[in-house]
## 1
Amino acid sequence: MKLFSRTQTPFDALRFCTSWLISPALLFCFRAVISLYTFVATFVILGEDNAQSASTARHDFSYFTNLTYWGLAFYFGFAAMHTAIYWRSGHAFLAQWPKVLQIAHSVFYSTIVVFPLLVTSMAIASFNFLGFCVNCFQLSSGV
């Protein structure tokens, strides 16, 4: 089956490892810092929730916003790893993956790009629909 082959098809692995604006070394630093921050923030929040009561920490994976944050943490972690490999060797590690994993990586990338915007817009829309921000707009209109 061609889906599981290791052929060099039009999958552009360099676009996941490089930037048109900054060098791979700087891109690696940005991605690693963002990943480190998101993991530390997530574990600190889980630790505080667990210290207050054990029942709140186990519900962390039931909210879509928390799952989005976990997805961002892992995306930036693996993106930093791929950028570091490209920066050190000059070859994209993703280009050596089987076709099915390259497709899965592209789908994961598109969800990381789209879902945070979707979650934010849905939260704002639900707040406006439920009337949470009505008083905020009325207070600011008199300024």
## 2
Amino acid sequence: MEYKQMVSNSHSLILTIAVVMASSQTLASALTVPNTFVSGAATSASDMNANFAAVKAAVDDNNTRIASIDGTTSSFKGFSSGTTQGNGGLITMGNLCNTSFTGSHVCTTLEFASASYTGATGLSGNAWIQARGLSKGTSASVTDQVSLISGHTSTITCNGWTSNSSTNGGLAVSSVGGFTAPQCSNTLAVACCN
């Protein structure tokens, strides 16, 4: 294939990608291609690579936006700076997260397991975490489908986050990502996701 035809084909590819990206949806990020080429003129690999890098950056940004709309990505922010016993309730726990990391909420085990951990802070000890995907075993037993911890709801949710009894337990996650079910009388931080 001749050099001119390769350059022309490359220009067509870039133009096609730009048109598709610009028209695909209103939430798409803007694409600014740094180099414009003239038919018949020579171009450099660095100029072509710069254009491809611009297209890749826009595609990656759009992928991130779409994933956040789909709810498929979560970011683990860290453990709250404030603490509570197991009877704090989800509102108190959510407020502890939001105070520590604006816009965050109590993580579920599913969110935590699939989250990005980059930049997580306050990781020391254990933190309360909300069960997700409970499957019913016997009439008195449930299993969190992520941590695989089983028990009566009073033993993995501190009886709906209303108990600070040492006879009940709640799900918690450790600073290295292990799951446990400490007594509700423990005072712990809260695992926070965004």
## 3
Amino acid sequence: MISARMRQADAGRTRSSASLRSLARTRGLLVVLFVVLVAAFAAGLWGTILRPAAYEVQGQVVARAAPNLLLVRHEAIAGLGMSAMETMAVSVTPDQLAPLDLEPGDRVRLAVRPRGDDIVLVWIERLGGRLRPPSDGRRAPSGALLPATPQN
């Protein structure tokens, strides 16, 4: 009889120690999960500090002031504190613009990012149409979009 009671007591201790181990393992996994989620959140925040957002804008090419500088008249960019139709000087690499063969008057859509005191081009694409004066000598209304000049 004593041995039966001892076996029952040992079995109870084994069950309770197993449940304690299971509980400890569950808590440990929750702590690890929490730490991983906090680290991922911190990395996401750090990434936005190191690499600020890019601003997408539409505008018109004014000139290619230098091989690494493009002047664009654009719509408002609130994030950069620029109102509509200001001329923006964008730092570019010649490789970014070479395939587009941009000319003054071309309408473009571009993404820019501030870097120090410069505004750097992230990407650019030409939109259909070019702003140009009518061929019969009349003045086009300000901001009028006319069809692109045919390429010969």
## 4
Amino acid sequence: MIRIAVLGDIGSGKSYVAKQFGYPVFSADAEVVKLYRKSRKCYNKLKKTLPNYITSFPVKKSELLKAIMVNRYNLKKIVRIVHPEVRTSMNKFIKKNKNKKFVILDIPLFLENKMNKQNDILIFIDAKKKEINKRLRKRNNKNLKIIKKFKKLQLPVEFKKKQSDFSIKNNFRNNFTKKSVRKILEKILLYA
């Protein structure tokens, strides 16, 4: 099984591109939403760490955002609780899909949390800053101050680009992106 990790800036279209591969996708963002809704263990740890903000189960995104806005270190506290759970879920996903040719890992902090293995194929999603900002403004519940705090957790985009095996220019047009994904899959299969 070949692990393909999709990297890029917030709003660059990583999740969309990940789905275009047509193989099982592990989405860290979806996993975090699930943890907040269903994991009592996660709730209890967050409640203990942020008792002034987390009031009831399931964990409300608005409470977490408030905690982050009040104190930027609260974001790091949240990440320290949530990411080990995401890693565990990712490992279960990989085990479940071990007989697939590829698995796609859509994990925003993939390199930052040292989740990469030596043989992973890293694909950088390159999008114009102007397009990213336009898309971020359209998203629901996306406070630009929060986005800036999340970006501080991330490695520089240029570093991620240099670390990547491939790059996909995302112009947010379906046909172009699908064609780019097909070409990359062909290249990977050629050398696999």
